[in-house]
Amino acid sequence: MSGLVGQSSEEVRSPRAESRGHALQGPAYVQYQYGYPHKTAYRAFPEPRTLASVWAGEDQRALSLYLHVPFCEMRCGFCNLFTVAGPVEAVMERFVATLEREASVVRSALPKAQFARVTVGGGTPSLLPPPLLARALDVLERTLGAPMQDVPFCVEVSPETTTVEKAKLLVDRCVDRISIGVQSFLERETKALARPQERKLVDTALDVLRDTGVETLNLDLIYGIEGQTPATLMESIETALRWRPEELYLYPLYVRPKTFLGKSTRAWDDFRLELYRVGRDALLAAGYRQISMRCFRAAHAPAPFGPAYRCQDDGMVGVGVGARSYTNQLHYSSEWAVSPRAVRGLIDAYCDRDDASFDLVHHGIALDEAEQRRRHLILSLLADGLDAATYRQKFQREAATDFPELKQLVEAGLATSNAAGWTLTPAGLERSDAVGPWLQSAKVTSMMKEYEVK
Question: Which residues of the chain have pLDDT under 70?
Answer without folding.
Answer: 1-24, 75-80, 256-268
